[in-house]
Amino acid sequence: MSVTTRYRDAWEGFWREAPDEQGAVFWDAEPALTVGVHLPLFEPHLAAPGLPFVDLGCGNGTQTRFLADRYPHVVGADLSAAALDHARHADRAGQASYRLIDAVEKNEAETLHAELGDANVYMRGVLHQCELDDRQPLVDGVAALVGERGRAFLVELAEAAGVVLRGLAQRPEGPPAKLAPVFRHGIAPGEVADDAVMEYLRSAGLTVFASGELPLVTTEYQGDGTRIELPSKWVVAGRG
């Protein structure tokens, strides 16, 4: 199984249209508010911190570059070639490497694992943007990447985020400017049941070592100037 052409084309269209500057995309928040908050939760559970680090669903590479400042071998991986063009353009120092990959396709995840060996994986907000039938294969792809020694850190929107997003989409004046392109390109986030993420991990043969709740910070603001934050849940998983 692999992602549909429609889905891939939607992401290509989104990233071709997206501006270059950091923060122009709805979820492209500053690393200090995203991966910088997540690493202290993740790092205590790393069985092998020296493993390669894969930022799966890296988009324009904002979080990838932050990881590359802290780890010697970081790979930004994404389904969209246009996203990777943004990432490479922003990474002028070549701190990370970048890889076009459909992680839903088992062979592609296994091929990357064969090249890197076991890896630690960071994945933020990717699962809920997948079509329903692709979610278990995506987590299976994560399991292939981590192998026996790696660990995965997943952050996904909580069910409660759906209420917030629907409210934003249905505003009389329309959705916020940075959220509108997401809907326009047909990649509106879907809801993932909170307990479904745990089931996907178990089915992939992964053990959950830690979990919790955090707001997922966006780059958009309410009319009163407060930043829009979406309820999310995080989990650290790997093979026991």
UniProtKB/TrEMBL annotation:
Keyword Chloroplast included in the entry's annotation: no
GO MF entries: methyltransferase activity
GO biological process, one term: methylation
InterPro entries noted in UniProt: Methyltransf_25 (IPR041698), SAM-dependent_MTases_sf (IPR029063)
Keyword Lipid metabolism: no
Residue ranges occupied by any Methyltransferase domain in the UniProt entry: 54-147
Keywords: Methyltransferase, Transferase
Gene3D superfamilies named in the record: Vaccinia Virus protein VP39
Domain of life, per lineage: Bacteria
Transmembrane segments annotated in the record for this chain: none
Protein name per UniProt: Class I SAM-dependent methyltransferase
Organism: Streptomyces xiangluensis
